[in-house]
Amino acid sequence: MIGSVAVVGASLAGTGTARALRELGFDGRVTLIGAEPHRPYDRPPLSKDLLAGKVTAADIALDEDLDVEWRLGRRAVSLVPGDRAVRLDDGSDVRADAVVVATGARARSIPAPRGVHVLRTLEDARRLAAVLLPGARLVVVGGGFIGCEVAATGRGLGVEVTIVEAGPAVLAPLGPAVAGRLLRTHREHGVRVVCGAPVSAITPHAVVLGDGTELPADVVLVAVGAVPETDWLRGSGVALAADGGVAADRYCRTTVPSVFTAGDVATAEFPCGPARVEHWTNAVDQAQVAAAALLGSPGPAVGDRPPYFWSDQYGSRLQLAGRPGPGDTFRVVEGELDGESFAGVYEDETRVTAVAALDRPRAFGALRRRLRQL
Length: 374
Ligand SMILES: Cc1cc2nc3c(=O)[nH]c(=O)nc-3n(C[C@H](O)[C@H](O)[C@H](O)COP(=O)(O)OP(=O)(O)OC[C@H]3O[C@@H](n4cnc5c(N)ncnc54)[C@H](O)[C@@H]3O)c2cc1C
Description:
It contains 6 helices and 25 strands. The protein is of the alpha/beta class. 44% of the residues are buried. The two termini are 38 Å apart. The protein folds into 3 domains: 4-106 and 226-295, FAD/NAD(P)-binding domain (3-Layer(bba) Sandwich); 112-221, FAD/NAD(P)-binding domain (3-Layer(bba) Sandwich), CATH 3.50.50.60; 315-372, no CATH class. It has helices at residues 12-23, 122-131, 145-156, 175-188, 280-295, 361-372, and strands spanning 4-8, 29-34, 69-72, 76-80, 85-88, 93-95, 98-101, 105-107, 137-141, 160-164, 192-194, 199-203, 206-209, 214-216, 219-222, 226-228, 246-247, 259-261, 266-270, 273-276, 308-313, 316-322, 329-335, 342-347, 352-358. Helix 1 runs parallel beside helix 5. Bound molecules: flavin-adenine dinucleotide (FAD). Flavin-adenine dinucleotide binds at residues 8-14, 33-36, 43-44, 46-47, 75-76, 102-105, 119-120, 146, 229, 232, 263-264, 278-281, 283, 309-311.
């Protein structure tokens, strides 16, 4: 019988789990432990409207009225499942019958001088916003979603932007057709994009590429992915997956009884195999899965819905559901790839693997429903 739950990580997956526990009728004690000092907030606007100054921190707050005991500004430093205790950085213990690991991820860093930016937290976004001034030269290291979104926001603020990507293409998971379309959009907006260009050094005033090219920079953002926050689990017996995330089954159960996981930190078992998915909707979905599994209630399983994410760049919204494979082809079914908007499907030899759209939400919704039925 579960009478108390400690949720570690007070962000999207953590608050979602706490809310789901209450919705499922759990009336025991829920303690929500969060390393950040503020109430939970939504991260997607950090690279978009918050960075652009269009919304404030108050606008991006997540649920304020959860029925939980808050332990904010406190970091979990260890987990002792035998004692059913989460040890905090002030030396206190939170005891609970079940624990949910929802500690997300931190921005991956590379060797760089002080002053180089990353973007994961509200503080990161505020620091970056303060220096994205008209005419400033921004070099974004990493052509993934966060890097490309900041590039787009930067252009809107009158910043000169260069994206440097070590791989052959920006936004590689989208495949050559869709990624190529977005690359053209960046270039049309005046962003210099350099691909196949590993960075050899970052100096206080430049980013130096492997071939010796120096890109002068007033501001450098390193956006090269995220690392799951699992250090505090060392010695707990909770197994990690090969990719560093917390290994979990289709019900978000870790290898230790009564310890569950959800969100960016979790490498859960999807129908197609284990995966760590760093997208908003995944954190929301896995919170539901973990809460139901914890209470032993019938509930959803990981991957019941195909993965979904969106990305906003230059006022346009890209949406994608499913899992495009590296060799899949993208077939446009509405609009035109180089037009203002389009919707289409990714296909391998036998089936549709994913659907995507740019500024075609209705067509996307219809395609996504079909994907669900596959
Ligand atoms: C800039 C940015 C833009 C994004 N834009 C999009 C988008 O457009 N579309 C999309 O689908 N997804 C987007 N995402 C991804 C989405 O925000 C994440 O998938 C989501 O935040 C994951 O939630 P989470 O709760 O699992 O992890 P996190 O949001 O990382 O939260 C984990 C929390 O745990 C805390 N924590 C860590 N370690 C400890 C510890 N030891 N003790 C206590 N607390 C701890 C952290 O401080 C943090 O508050 C974006 C992410 C970022 C950073």
